User: Fold these one by one.
Assistant:
Number 1:
Amino acid sequence: MISLSCDKWLLTLTTILSVILLNLLLVRNPLYSRDSGPAEGEIRRLTDLNTQSPTEPSWPHTGAGLLFGAGISKVSPSKKNTQTPEKDLLLQRWSLSGSLFYPLDMGLGFGKFTREPDQGRAGLVHGWLQWTAWEEFGWPALAFRLGHSRLYGLSNTEIRTWTGNSQISWGYRRLTAWIGSSASFHQIFGQLSESEPETDLTIDKHETAQPQQAGYQQSFSLHALIGAHLQLIPDLLNIAVERQHSRNQQTITFKVSLIL
């Protein structure tokens, strides 16, 4: 019993230290520390938009049925640019998640940017798999996720992102809190151009003209997240809030979930 208890504490401590280490790596991430032109900065912002989180605790969905979620995310730059200020974006989100078999869950999501009615054509779709590596009554739950998302509706550009996530949750009665970190690999297809902007995600026309970036590009980013989940009506209605941030951008998400 003593050995088993020590193993639990070792697992919990190792996970917490790993999350803290990833957060420190995020702060020191050289991909977001060097200066860049407007086009490169815009690509960074778009890849951050395509890094999605389910906004759920680490617990498995086994026996809970399907979980339908609806929410809204506010996307804003981590550091304000006084010369060419970037506007905050609002993302409406819908998701459906459930258990494949213990301890594996999966989910699908859809998002639409609707800050302005005439510029709300950009959106994204994403899916994820979750493996709950550790969960036991009275102890934190540890989960790993693998997700893929696609950002569409941009002028001549498509962004696809693969994201790996680790997250640990603590629950007390109806309240659950979590922290986590993720690493994302981004693929940018096509070109990011200033001409004929179709959405509010394209480069600002008032910026100095830069050469078009065409073809295929890759980038990597790190993100940290913290959130909380509350059971308003047990086995029926939940609410959750989460903050996800990188050196380039932060996203605040509010989500309401209905258990079907």
Note: The domain at 2-259 is CATH 2.40.128 (Lipocalin).
Number 2:
Amino acid sequence: MSPTVIWRAMRFRVAGSTLWMILMHAGAVAAAWDGSTSLHDINLKPENFLDINSFQFRPSEEIRWYGVENGWRIAGGSLESNRAYLKTDLRLKQLITPSLSARLYWADNEFYEPRQVARPLLELELRPSAWPLSFSLLGAPAYAKPEADLGLAITLGMRPWDYVRVAWLSPDHYYNSKNDFDRSYYLRNPSQLTVDAAHKWDERYKLRLLWQDNSPLEFVLDDQISVFAYENRNYQGSFDYQRDTSQTFGIAMHGFDTKQSSDAAGTFRSQDIRYYSVNSYWIRSMGLDKEWTIGIRHDAFRNAERTPLVSATEYDYVLETTQLYSTYYVPFASQQAWDLGLYLGHSSERRSYLDASIDRSRENYFEAKLRTGWEVFSSGRGSALTLALSWNLDNLVDDTFDGGSVRFRAAF
């Protein structure tokens, strides 16, 4: 069998299995509580943030996605043999009358713990004629009425650009009054406040900001003794400057702070999880849809694990990665392109136990990987599918292959 045939077989076999894994798991909103009362062990690898960067959409694709109101995209890939990175966005908008529209949102972002599938969020938006304001009713209906979400929003300006929006959501709005499935209830009800804004000056400067607060909740389980607590803050921001038609400079950041705990019949465990990512990049368009990107990215993930009754399992965990990366996108045939990426990074992993008798650990790693992707796109470039394989440049002899990934995007 020729090397070309072997390459094609590996490419479609790995990408096909990765796509199936993504579709089976996509669906949860990362910031809000997903209803799970379990705390999961967090196991990251030093190379994971290089993996995630290679799985995600290129900065130029992110910039174009900002203006999409009807579209779907999904990206994911293998982090290890039994874990995957997943990111999904679905946006739909339909005008009913000139002043009334319906929208649907569904989002997922998983990389450090499994999450339960969330329901899409529906929005009915009313914009009185000649008014700069619009008013929205938000909701996520459910067969079990205790799990239905209700909310309100007000928007100054008109999305997707030049607006400021404030939204309030009450998850599980009727839970305490309508739950007859078991004896669980909220001791402290959840609520979510989101403020987001976007503005652009001509087409050269683009700014987007988002801040979301999921207020502290306390949930009493069916046994009437165990209590689960959760709170979260989520933030995002980006600024892009298009110097001319061939060059764009940008910076994007996002992160979250999550505190969660489980007190199950006197056995207490808590996690204080904090993560942020900063990505700066230069995009060079070279004509004929060719594109070259150079970027520097820093990711920091921290988890403070506390189990007062078992001091040997109390520790602070930190994983930080700084990486230099470059991607090259070049069409080579009708509706096909190569999408290549090189990622070089330094990772620092630390684990400090509160028990002084347990040695602290600190390891430094040099990580390097190559992503080789093949893309097929529609004639108008409104949709594209990318299948990719990754290779360990830091260990080509003993561990050459580094898994597969899939990206799909479509603007309707």
Note: The chain has one domain: 3-411.
